[in-house]
Design a protein that fits this description.
single chain, about 800 residues, alpha/beta, binds ligand 26W, carbohydrate metabolism, Pyridoxal_P_attach_site, Glycg_phsphrylas
Amino acid sequence: MDGFIREFLRELNFGQGVALSFSSINDQYLALARTVRHYLMARWLGTLRRQFETQAKGVAYLSAEYLLGRQLGNALLATGLTDIVEEGLAKCGIDLATLRAQEVEPGLGNGGLGRLAACFIDSLATMSVPCVGYGIRYEYGIFRQTFEDGRQVEQPDNWLALGSPWEFPHPEAAQIVNFAGHTETYEEDGTVRSRWIPGWSVQAIPYNYMVPGYQNGRVNTLRLWSAVATNAFDLRIFNSGDYAEAVRAQTFAENISKVLYPEDSTPQGKELRLQQQYFFVSASIHDFIDNVLPADFDLTHLPDRVIFQLNDTHPVIGVPELMRVLVDEKDFDWDDAWEITKKCFAYTCHTLLPEALEVWSVDLLGRLLPRHLEIIYRINDEFLDEVRERFGDDELRIRRMSIIAEHPERSVRMAYLATVAGSKVNGVAELHSQLLRDKVLPDFDEFYPGKFINVTNGVTPRRFIRLANPALSELITDALGVGWLTDLERLRELEPYAEDEEFKERFRAVKAHNKRRLSRVLVDRDGTSVDDDHLLDVMVKRLHEYKRQTLKLLHIVTLYDRITSGEVKPADIVPRTFIFGAKAAPGYRMAKEIIHLINAVGSVVNADPAVEGRLKVLFPPNYNVTLAEKVIPAADLSEQISLAGKEASGTGNMKFALNGALTIGTDDGANIEIRELVGDDNFFLFGLLEPEVEALYAKGYVPSSFYESDEGLHRAIDMIARGTFSGGDRGVFDGLVSNLLYDDRFMALADYRAYIDAQDEVDKAYLDEDRWTRSAILNVARTGFFSSDRSMRNYIDRIWHTPPSF
Ligand code: 26W
């Protein structure tokens, strides 16, 4: 510990340049972060050296998003230094928790897909599998959400402002990334070749981040790229003597990594977004070839050294990029290059919504990446030839399967390109993978037997149990001993404890403790609080109509109606606190109206004395990983209420179950697998099944008929329409109400009655404290399957073939 104190003070004095007595909390935080990273450094260097020596095959995870969460706690956990650091700091009069709270989380992702990438790289490091994560170092991450009069207002997330002690810039390892221009053909040794004469270029500067394995001596690398203007740019403009133009050009280049696109699920087709995608993918592929492989490496063997995993379609432009490198730069012939490329990529799809599948207009792609467009056309021609060979001139089928769509404008279907090039295509939960094969890409499934597989998502237990829920972790360790954190199926051994009175008592105490902890956090950040004796009912996820935050609202409004109409006395209802956390894409109008309505309902319900404090609606702004780590361990009830067939997997659902919340959920995504594991008695299932949803769409869904025939629903919607939550103003939620009554794409009204009935069951179950605790313990005991270590094992065995390497 003395060693730690010495190092910490050294960092504070010589790194930060301040004396302890004059140091700010931020000084102390930065000095601590740098001290801790020193402890990881020898492991990092060792990992890199061994990796180079063994030349083992590794994963290059290509993801436009990494939603990492705070780093300090995880680094302390990985090194096993938490106690020493806590004591050491205390001797200096510093509280570790205060320094941890100083860290601004890097919000370099939107939601599930970005957080999944972060969980996966954690697991790979912990399992000693070689992996480098590649992505973008956005200067501004996901916006900071604030509310003004209940409406969402976005603020820039300047996460780098107070310093970023976890990153290591490597300007000397910059890559040049080219754009635009034109292509030309030329003859060499009697063969016709192509080359690309780019119009402009930028530099990609890598920033390395440590990805420490859990107490195993391994540290993998996350490499995020930042864009700056090239020297050529500077020089040309310097020569032109136009200073203002020089600065403008600089800004133009740097725009590429300036900001994360906050759209989740509806791609905008913006040029800058395609620039971002090509920017990081091109830099990453070149980086791997130049810096990870030895200088004399024969790229014929590239598939023995790397698999590029495509996290959704965002990095799919890497396929024509690798082809271009092989054919144009490394002189491979086309067929050989294609054989290599097909073995080097695999593709994960994260959605089912047709509008979320990325397409790029041929016009835009051809302007920005002319050579890549030619390559895509050739890939498509050869692919369609194969299809013809198999199926004859079935023009309808050809048109359906073409990578190039003709309508509404000629464009490239990135998911098709990924499917044609990928050695495997996977969905992220059983149902999702099935629907992917049956509904989204059925022609491809028929054409490529065995290519489509399922790998159900998972979450890292290091962050989402051990760090987020130390009290539960301690209880588990007391029961099972150590080792469960890297072998999560061992949670099964908790099953007998579901009948153990003392254990149940302690389990309840853990939940109560976590509720109080959450309450303190909410008091500090928003001046709100959670009542100890309330059922804590939580819905946290991006705001989207398919996730159906409105259905949750209709439940709350119904409970409010039951009280205000005198149907029930407040004292007779189970007291509940509802917590919402959700960001809406800034351009998604309906989502923003739903946020407004949640806040409006909260204001009225929370202030109405008739409620007698039995219902409380909280919507802490700016839900992020840091808040998730406090909210999830405190929850009693997990809301997973998407319309069946729409949520690819969900991963929040897994985090809640692992922390002992019961789920109320539809038969969708990974909910299905959760329910199968925990058992029907320990899960509140409701709502239409996916085939029923399809049947209802087919016969013609009339939402207003549900409104007409269900009194409770009628009353709830009328309350909103009448202005109960908008000071009597009927106009405010007009759009939302008519959307529900006359469109309701995601069938909230059709599932309303089933949902309300299921919630009434929840109340009954909660009143039986013993039964509830038993169910909660069984949720923990039976969901070890959802460790991302298990997901990674599946990818390794079935897609990557990258064994651990020590
Ligand atoms: C702007 C284009 C775009 C399109 C889709 C941006 C982001 C997306 C993602 C696919 C959205 C996303 O995060 N999907 C979620 O991925 C999780 C991890 O697999 C799943 O658990 C969620 O169900 C899925 O919605």
